[in-house]
Amino acid sequence: MTTSDDVGVVGTFYPVQGDSVPAVLLLPGYNQLRGEWAAFASYLQRNGIAALTIDLRGQGDSTRQLTAEGVRALRHEQFGTRDFQNMQLDAEAAVSWLQDQPGIKKSGIAIAGASVGANVALRYIAVNEDIAAILLLSPGINYKGLRTDDVITSVGSRPLRIVVSQYDSFAFESSKRLVEIRREAGQVADEKELIISTGNRHGTDMLTDVKNLPEILLAWFQQVLLGIAPEPTKPVAPSAESPAPAKASGAASSPASAPPATQPAPAK
C-alpha cells in the first residue's frame, strides 16, 4: 500500500472466502507493531470477518517514504505533530486497499484503533463517511498532537464502542469526555457505547488481560457488520492478572463455528 504522500505502508491481511464479506482495519498504538492485533484479527477471521492490520508510518515495516530527493527513512522518534497527523493517510491507503480486494463489501468496512491508533482512527473517520463502525481502545483527548474532542461528533449515528480501563487515568477521563461530548450533541443512542473495566490495562493489552472482551467485541462486530443478533449479555471479567471490573457493557457471544481460517497474507 502506498499513501497519497508516498509512504509505503505494510500490513497483514486476514481474508475470508465469499462475497460481500465485511472487514475491519486494525491500527496499533505508538511504538507498537501490527502484530499486537494478530490474535484478535485471527479471531475475527475465524468468525466470518476479514481483517487488515498495518504498521503506521515510522513504525515496524512502514519506514520508507519516496521523495524527490530519493527514499527517506521514517522514524517515529523523530516525528512532529504534522507527521502524526499524517498517519490518517495510512488509514486512508489501507481502507482503499481493502475496498479493492475481491469479495470485500465496500460499505461493510469498520475501523479499530488502540491508543494513538484510536486517535488516528477517529480523525480518519471524520473525513470518511463510508466507515461502517468504529472501535476505540484507550483513546485520548490528545495524543501526540492528535486531538479527538474536535472530531468525536463526526461519528454521528454510526455504531461506536469505546473500551477503557478505569485506572488508566488519562484514557479513562478522555473516554468519558468523548461520550459526554456526543451526549451533549444528542448523538448517544446506545448506552453501551462505553465499556469500562477495572485495572490499568491500556490499548490491546485489554484484549488479552480482560476476559470476555474479545467475545464481546466480536459479537458487536457481528451485529453491526453481519446483522447477527447478540446473545444475552455477559459481564466483562478480568484475567487472573487483573482485578474484577467495576462495570462493563456490551453483548457477549461465544465464538461462532467456522471453517479453519485462511492463512494471513502480506498486504503491501
Descriptive overview:
By secondary structure, the chain is α/β, with parallel strands linked by helices. Helices cover 27% and strands 23% of the residues. It contains seven helices and 15 strands. It has an eight-stranded mixed beta sheet, with helices on both faces. The protein is globular.
Q: What is the class in the CATH system?
A: Alpha Beta
CATH architecture: 3-Layer(aba) Sandwich
Number of strands: 15
Mean pLDDT: 87
Our count of domains comes out at: 1
What is the percentage of strand-forming residues? 15-25%
The best one-word shape is globular
The Rg value, from CA coordinates, equals 17 Å
Helix/strand order: EEEHEEEHHEHEEEEHEHEHEE
| Strand line-up in the sheet with most strands | 12-11-8-7-3-4-2-15
Tell me the number of helical segments per DSSP (H or I, 4 or more residues long): 7
For the terminal residues, how far apart are their CA atoms?
Answer: 4 Å
CATH superfamily: Alpha/Beta hydrolase fold, catalytic domain
Work out the helicity level: 25-40%
CATH topology: Rossmann fold
What's the short version?
By secondary structure, the chain is α/β, with parallel strands linked by helices. 27% of the residues lie in helices and 23% in strands.
Topology of this structure?
Layout (H helix, E strand, L loop, with lengths): L6 E2 L2 E4 L6 E7 L10 H9 L3 E5 L9 E4 L2 E4 L7 H5 L1 H13 L4 E11 L1 H10 L8 E4 L4 E2 L2 E2 L12 E6 L3 H16 L9 E4 L7 H5 E2 L1 H14 L10 E2 L26 E3 L1
Parallel strand pairs: 3-4, 3-7, 7-8, 8-11, 11-12
Antiparallel strand pairs: 1-5, 2-4, 2-15, 5-6, 9-10, 13-14
Helix pairs in contact: 3-4
